[in-house]
Amino acid sequence: MRIDDALRLAREAELDLVEVAPMARPPVAKLMDYGKFKYENAQKARETRRNQTNTVIKEMKLRPKIDSHDYETKKGHVVRFLKAGDKVKITIMFRGREQSRPELGYNLLKKLAEDVGEFGFVESSPKQDGRNMLMVLGPHKKKTEARAEVRAERDRRAAERQADAAAERTEQADHRAQAATEPHPKRKRGPVDNLDADIDLS
């Protein structure tokens, strides 16, 4: 079709004439609402970006002769990272004579992998890298699943707080209503009531 005829058709249909395949012979054009086309493409791109997950590798450094309390603290961090859907690189740092005892690092990494097995798995087995020994743990849950769970838990806690606040408000209103309907009890007269009000007791 000639360009003039295509443009006339576009004007009659109140649409745009958009070239979609300029390298074709002859070039291919399409009648469309270009503004709507751009908007829909932008929406699709935004949705794609939202569904993308960036793989984050967290790092945790340990010493072969780590104290049990420190170990528990570091293990807690590793569990938190795995629950959030992140990979964790565990590094055992050897110093001095410790380098001649690589089995200490290996046993520690093995113990850690067993302790966090509920939340992650060994993605890269322990291997020596110079003075360090490395192991990578991967999460059982994907990042999107972990985010959804965190969001659901946050919503649940917010709903519980709102319910507790509403119950407390209702209880206070009932208490005020009950206090307003009850007659005031008569106060018993005591020896002080018989004193002359003009006498200064101070």
TrEMBL record:
Translation initiation factor 3 N-terminal domain boundaries: 1-47
Matches recorded under InterPro entries: T_IF-3_C_sf (IPR036788), T_IF-3_N_sf (IPR036787), Translation_initiation_fac3_CS (IPR019813), Translation_initiation_fac_3 (IPR001288), Translation_initiation_fac_3_C (IPR019815), Translation_initiation_fac_3_N (IPR019814)
Gene Ontology molecular function terms on file: translation initiation factor activity
Keyword tags: Initiation factor, Protein biosynthesis
Keyword Protein biosynthesis carried by entry: yes
Pfam family, one: IF3_C
Domain Translation initiation factor 3 C-terminal, first and last residues per copy: 56-139
Domain of life, source organism: Bacteria
PROSITE patterns cross-referenced by the UniProt entry: IF3 (PS00938)
Region (Disordered): 138-202
Subcellular location: Cytoplasm
Signal sequence annotation: none
Keyword Protein biosynthesis listed: yes
Biased composition annotated in UniProt, kind: Basic and acidic residues: 145-177
NCBIfam families: infC
UniProt family annotation: Belongs to the IF-3 family.
PANTHER family linked: TRANSLATION INITIATION FACTOR IF-3, TRANSLATION INITIATION FACTOR IF-3, MITOCHONDRIAL
Subunit note: Monomer.
Cited function: IF-3 binds to the 30S ribosomal subunit and shifts the equilibrium between 70S ribosomes and their 50S and 30S subunits in favor of the free subunits, thus enhancing the availability of 30S subunits on which protein synthesis initiation begins.
Protein name per UniProt: Translation initiation factor IF-3
